[in-house]
């Protein structure tokens, strides 16, 4: 398992903790610090075990009120960042 901490921008959540499988293709777990607790726990449960590409396709571009982003949208950025970090580490 690969763990990555992502700092979201423009949302209430302060941090997103991401766990991917060793290949970086499947979400093994996600938790949020801050934000709408119940909704963000639900997102974590719903995406657990799903392919990263599927999660990104569904959640990317989701907005929250007048904001141009949301915790779900920021999660997609964090997932891609985690994949890049994993690949960069594997290449080292």
Strand fraction: 15-25%
What does the largest sheet look like?
3 strands, antiparallel
Order of helices and strands: EEEHHH
Major sheet strand order = 1-2-3
How many H/I helices? Answer: 3
| Overall pLDDT level | 96
Global Rg: 12 Å
Total E-strand runs:
3
Q: Which residues form runs of ≥5 with pLDDT under 50?
A: none
The secondary-structure class comes to: alpha+beta
- End-to-end separation in angstroms reads 18 Å
**Shape by Cα distribution:** globular
Helix content: 40-55%
Question: What does this entry look like structurally?
Answer:
- It contains three helices and three strands, in the order βββααα.
- It has helices at residues 37-47, 52-59, 71-91, and strands spanning 2-6, 15-20, 27-33.
- A three-stranded antiparallel beta sheet has the order 1-2-3.
- The radius of gyration is 12 Å and the shape is globular.
- The two termini are 18 Å apart.
Question: How do the helices and strands line up, and which of them pair or pack?
Answer:
Layout: E1 2-6, E2 15-20, E3 27-33, H1 37-47, H2 52-59, H3 71-91
Helix pairs in contact: 2-3
Please describe the structure with a list of short key phrases separated by commas or semicolons.
single chain, about 90 residues, alpha+beta, 3 helices, 3 strands, about 45% helix
In summary, what is this structure?
By secondary structure, the chain is of the alpha+beta class. The chain has helices spanning 37-47, 52-59, 71-91, and strands at 2-6, 15-20, 27-33.
């Amino acid at each position: 398992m690969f763990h990555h901490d992502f700092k979201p921008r423009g949302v209430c959540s302060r941090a997103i903790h991401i766990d991917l499988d060793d290949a970086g293709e499947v979400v093994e777990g996600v938790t949020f610090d801050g934000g709408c607790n119940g909704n963000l726990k639900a997102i974590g449960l719903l995406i657990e075990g799903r392919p990263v590409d599927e999660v990104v396709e569904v959640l990317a571009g989701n907005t929250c009120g007048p904001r141009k982003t949301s915790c779900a949208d920021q999660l997609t950025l964090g997932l891609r960042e985690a994949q890049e970090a994993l690949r960069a580490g594997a290449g080292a």
